[in-house]
Amino acid sequence: MSVTMVQLTSTVLYSMPAFAACGIRRAPSFPRSYYLRVLGPLALAKFLTTMFSQISIWKVPISYAHTVKATTPLWTAALAWLLFGERQTPGVQGSLLLIAAGVAVASATELHFDAQGMGAALAAAALLSLQHLYSKRVMRDSGAHHLRLLQLLSALALVPLTPIWMVAEASALYSARPAAGWTHAGTLLAADGALAWLQAVAAFSVLSRVSPLAYAVASAAKRAAVVAASLLLLRNPAPPLNLAGMALAGLGVLAYNRAKLRRREEDAHRPLLPV
């Protein structure tokens, strides 16, 4: 919970001088009803996504948590179909199923499997997909700059988190005695907050330029790099079938990219008029 608090607070505080220095336009004045209908639920989704992400890497190895989160494209496609009626081509559907199969194999062979950790990772992936779908619509409908929207949602996400954090962890954190001292722990928290802000800025910048599903697949490719780095640096044990499941999920990402490229080429050669 404290890590989540640091990440959201850092996103709000670091954004203020950075965006002012870069001349990024201010967010539009939203009516109160828009906060209740759209921005409030979006901020709650951001808060819960961050929380579930921390729970997942607390309960299971990072490599497995990010393999499960590679299902984000599957959630994005399913939610886009349920909420907005968007349908995908058979090639895209097949690639999404390949990602799901890879995650299933990795789950079945994970040495440190934990149901709570897997559930938290799945919840984070689903909420992240929902957040991206509606964030994209807010950018399109309101004309808000994507980075100002990121700052606003992070600030609103602190509203439900702050009282919970103060009751649950603030006093315990004040009396805690980290083994390596507060200088070391504080440095790690500060680095985590700065990196979380930079990652969020990069993520919203990409999301503002591509569709939510394309972003989800790009994010799945990013997770493949995280999985490889965690296996090399943290030495998490992984049996061959577990590695095969991770590779299968990565293959699904490549198949998705190929299917979308083929669809784009077909659309480019299709005549504008049916003659």
What portion of residues is helical? over 70%
Number of domains: 1
User: What letter string, H or E per element, gives the SSE order?
Assistant: HHHHHHHHHH
Q: In terms of structural class, how would the helical and strand content be classed?
A: mainly alpha
Radius of gyration: 20 Å
Number of strands: 0
The parts where pLDDT drops under 50 for at least 5 residues are none
Mean pLDDT: 81
Distance between the termini: 61 Å
Bin the strand percentage.
under 5%
Largest sheet geometry = none
**Continuous helix count:** 10
Shape designation: globular
InterPro entries: EmrE-like, Sugar_P_trans_dom, TPT_transporter
Protein name: Triose-phosphate transporter protein
Keywords: Membrane, Transmembrane, Transmembrane helix
Membrane topology: Multi-pass membrane protein
Structure, explained:
The chain is built from ten helices and no strands. It starts with a helix and ends in a 6-residue tail after the last helix. It is globular. The model has no long low-confidence stretch (mean pLDDT 81). Helix 4 (72-84) crosses helix 6 (115-142). The chain is 82% helix and 0% strand. The protein has one domain (1-173, 190-261). It is an all-alpha fold and 275 residues long. The chain crosses the membrane at residues 36-58, 64-84, 91-109, 115-135, 147-168, 240-256. It is found in: Membrane. It comes from Danaus plexippus plexippus.
